[in-house]
Amino acid sequence: MRTPEIPPDEAARIATLRSLNILDTPVEERFDRLTRMAKRVFDVPIALVTLVDEDRQWFKSCVGLDISETPRDISFCGHAILGDDIFVIEDASQDIRFADNPLVLEDPGIRFYAGCPLRALNGSKLGTLCILDRESRNFSSEDLETLRDLASMVERELAAIQLATVDDLTGIANRRGFMSLAQPSLNLCAREKIPASLVFFDLNDFKPINDRFGHAEGDWALRCFAEQMKNVFRVSDLFARIGGDEFVVLLTNMTHEQATRIVRRLEKTIARNCQQADRGYAITFSCGIVEYDPGVHHGVEALLADGDALMYQRKKRKT
What's the predicted TM-score (pTM) here? Predict the structure, then answer.
């Protein structure tokens, strides 16, 4: 048996999957409708919407199986997300990669598999829409097109979820998306005694940019700031636009001192970018940096409140 490899974008892929806040959620008719359709169209006993996280494939929708997940290292879908096109195994019992796989040798006794990767809005492959049969079978070019069409419908449903947690203008998380991910991260930090710091940002003199140059230019400034956050912070960091010209980032495994150094790097990066862009103004910010203390901050809201208060104090000193 061949264990699926880890995609090169695994950290970003997992971060995108987590941002949807969809894992281990109840069944939903919008996904079940599509797996029922796939089962009927292809006349197969099993159709699934799978999501592949660090160590398992979890079924958001499952028709024909009584289980909700299987280990990633024996999954067919773990292989499917490595490619860009539909992954087809016409007879798993004759394929060296799968012939001794427990899912082939034991229940459900897979012979045929076809899985179309499901992409998030940023291109990350989160899982598959897949169909399984206990008999080997051929899969025509017309079948491939039909499965792609059904998978695109699943992708639209995932996109609707993602858009609810992503800021339309900047493409980074919104307040809702940040809150859904930040609390579990803080819980982990508290449990494992890992340091964490939060930085609350507010852009300086943002209103004059809108007033002098127009709202389209103000939008550019917001997108520019978000883009430099992506460039400076780590993939594992949680950053978001939480409203207007306010941004926030949660830095796990990072002390206040380390966070301060990264914020200084962000200042320099933005200043250099503004100089190169030469748009007639500079993008600067005030910020409050708070190191997480589980004994004081009983939730992400308390941490945000402290960061906001510190930011406001520093902004007042600049005026």
Answer: 0.67
